[in-house]
Amino acid sequence: MKKNEIVLLALKSLILEVSLYPKPGLVDPLDSGSHDDMDYNMFLESCFALVPGFEAYFEAGFHHHGSLPELFDVIRNVGIENEKAMFRATENVNTHKGANFLYGVVIAAIAYLKTPDLKILREGIQQMTSGLVDAELASLTDYRTHGERMYRDYGFTGIRGEVEAGIPHVFEFALPILDSEDDHVLARKKALLALMQSNNDTNMVKRGGIEGLKYGKSMASSSFNDLDEHLVQMNHEFIKRNLSPGGTADLLALSIFIQMYRDHRLKDAV
User: Fold this and answer.
1) In whole angstroms, how far apart are CA 89 and each of 27, 54, 135, 160, 203?
2) How far apart (Å, rounded) are the C-alpha atoms in residues 262 and 178?
3) Is the whole-model pTM more than 0.85?
4) What is the DSSP string of 54-92?
5) pLDDT tens sequence across 114-158
6) DSSP per residue over 105-148, as a string?
């Protein structure tokens, strides 16, 4: 697959995630969930602002001749610049910081490995980020960022642990659910709930403490008769408690991207 195909799929997946309705506590076309500093239009601006960086991630991976861990060091600088582009587009509101990190790793790995199948892609991601948690969290004595404090207080490894493990929430949790329904919108809503049940989303902890995370997981796993009604009720309760599973939304977007990447790759092979 060519660079423009990969980048357009990445952009499309981010737009599909933010366009999904209803969602609990998250921005969608009808409301801003628990966020009073962002809305749907801002998210769209942010999505498009990330595109040049996505292209740069691909170029970095495609032209890299060193090891995968060395590639991770290369794309860090790309990531910093892409994050700046996001903040310029949103007037310093964090819409896609986590997604920028996740997509950077995945897009660079796809380009480096020359459009691999999912097994090889996942192994490449693990190789690229091997030792990341030990290097950036376990060795700390001064915990400055929210993610670092989540590791200190609860042992949550966050996005670093997720990529080092090969993004299991995408490959093991969300992707099988996305593949289980012909109705893609329905599948994405079910995948979101499954991700919320499993993911220790540090955004939830930041907004509502560990009890907020537990509450979100409980609501995501509770039984319901009508999925949309359940999600609307969850949104109502999340707004009351100022909860937002933003990290989980990033994982859903990436899952949509991985599904589309796999399907386009298979079509190209026929």
Assistant:
1) 17, 15, 32, 25, 22
2) 12
3) yes
4) HHHHHHHHHT--S-HHHHHHHHHHHHHHHHHHHHHHHTS
5) 999 999 999 999 999 999 999 989 888 888 888 889 999 999 999
6) HHHHHHHHTTS--HHHHHHHHHHHTTTHHIIIIIT-SS--SHHH
